[in-house]
Amino acid sequence: MSLAVRLPGRAVAALATIALTGSALLGLVGPAHADDLTARALPSGPLSADALPTVQIDGVVWAQLVVGDRVYVTGEFTSARPAGAAAGTGEVPRSNILAYDVTTGALISSWAPSLNSTGLGLAASPDGSRVYVVGNFTSVNGVTRNRVAALDAATGAVVTSFAAGADYRVRSVVATADTVYLGGAFSSVGGAPRSRLAAVSASTGALLPWAPTADAEIMAMVRPASTPDQLVVAGRFSTLNGSPALGSGALSATTGATRPWAVQERVNDYGAKAAVYSLSSDGSTVYGTGYNYYGTGNLENTFAAAADGGTLKWVNGCFGDTYSSFPTNGVVVVVGHAHNCAPVGGNPQQTPWTFQRSYAFGAEASTTNVGGNFSGLPGSKPRAWLPTLTVGSYTGQSQAAWSVSGDSRYVVLGGEFPTVNGKAQQGLVRFAVRSLAPNKQGPIGKLSTDLKPTLTVLPSGTVRATVTAAWDRDDAILTYELLRGSSAASSTVVATGRQTSTWWNRAGVALVDPNPPVGTTPTYRVRVSDASGNVLTGNGAVLGVPVPAAGAPSRYAAAVAADGADHFWRLDEASGNLGLDTAGADDLSLDPSAGRGTAGATGDGDTATTFTGSAPVPATTTRAATGPQVFSVEAWFRTTSTTGGKIVGFGTASTGASSGYDRHVYLTNDGRLVAGTYSGGVRTVTSAGRYNDGRWHQVVMTVGSGGLTAYVDGIAVGRNASATGAQPMTGFWRIGGDSLAGWPAQPATTAFAGRVDDVATYPTELTAAQVARHFTAAGGNSVSR
User: Disordered: where is this region (predicted)?
Assistant: First the structure.
């Protein structure tokens, strides 16, 4: 096959090395924060991730077409077999083309035409009576048909009255009642010159005068319903009709003249190693997908453009080539191999590289790209629909799905994948809207490890149970219950909460038993369920020490909890290398040089931790997490250092210095505070005041739609309205040090020398009133500042 597709994806050279970041949404999210939880989760979608039983093939599928209850399929394969049948069993011959019932997935045995070579594109006549197929073949059902044929949609017979032919590959086809448009790599049709574009009579196949030109292959065409006299085309070309058109463009369907198509000025792929690979339309919008294997252009995912004129509506700056799209029910389903979709809230870059091979994005703009090739431009957030496809071996290109199509009820994927959701299902698979699906895709997690709780007695006398979040292929928000009892059947639910998760963001979940029986060693389990009622219960764990009597409450700690902290490291342990997270599930690991049990900041008798400035990063979380775009971070510090240092930040490393870092609060040599994020550039706030005066100070940084605001001792000291997010990535919260290369007013050392107390993070922008209330709860001006 002449399909120059890159493998497996371009390194993310466009991401700045100054500041790559990410964090998980850790800890239990209770009912008080339900609205915030929903905002952070991937939105629910119309589709179930249940892989419905579907006929299988032994090669690769390149194109699909749904007409009524039939799915027509073409590609390169020699046989079909029923769903569930192993290769070599139950097979019937099918030569590069077949049809199956979209409602049952069963092969339609009465429709069995034969192509002598690969099929690449399909279209139906408006009345549904014909199926047009194009590709590399020269014979259909034993009848000579050079790369273009019309088949009876009911019987599969060649429509003998339609006779058209091209001298080389035809890749795409669009049909109207009277005209069939062809696009590909050909130079003649019907024996007459045609440069990669042509039109023939729908009744006879005779060549029509329509003759626009392209300087390289046409790979896709679509005729939007809202602009019937317009044909949008895409491919490898850089010119249409001799004028610049970088991978996509628009033509008059009657004259072939070039029409305005603005999107190609912002979003383009073209040349031998890149292309706008596919097009689809919902009538008023055209969706395009691209690939770029070290070629010319900037698109590897999906764009949406107005059908009339091509004005860009949104573009997703994910990295990982994308081969097909299909709009339905308010989403656009795409297939490819996204390995970094962090710019619009999808899977961030992983090590080793991990891929999401099918996504559903909202059909309308719903977010803004952060980082990537389109930072700052409108994008579309992924939906909670994450089927798992494995790569096939047929093409040798390590891909899974190449084609997606469907209707308002079903979405059908085709390609070379051997399994879907861990079950054998080769080459073809169906998914349905939730109302037609069994909805059996439930929470996923290991019962003996992920969901077996780790139990800790908190200073309040309560018991914290932490687990690794489960994830679900079609539900982003899962419900967790903490069960106390000797067996699952006899247990009592003592805590309930919800958490958002995905396969790339399996945060820690903390559930707290508020009234454990004093003096006992109870057994706990965690049960997790999704919106469809699918349930998973982890193994039990026994508390290793008797439950102590409850401790006295803290006014400051209560204020932090009331405002929704998802992490709260009090740093008040008397000894050891643990920094307990009393709000979430992500404890700190402290360097042995850290001094424990020094006098604290917040007026409630808890102690603090002293950092000597000798360790590059004296305290760090250990669970990799996806960095928030909306957040607040709060800390208390006390120092007389004249060499500065980082108080808190987020970095890519769990040990040692990070190669990517962001979301910092640090001191300059002269004691000024700098708070900043990287969002298309370094964006910071620097205080006028100096705070290396040997007194305790509260510092808070908030980031979100309101920009970045820095507070010291309850009062705002600066704001940067342009810092509305941070660099997407996966990493760890780091306290007392980490890299700062490339950031302004760098201190002499990044390691902080002084005391740190009560560090908290929040999944929201704290208000000025909340920040001031925390300062007052800690003693306000009575604190030794």
Answer: 589-623
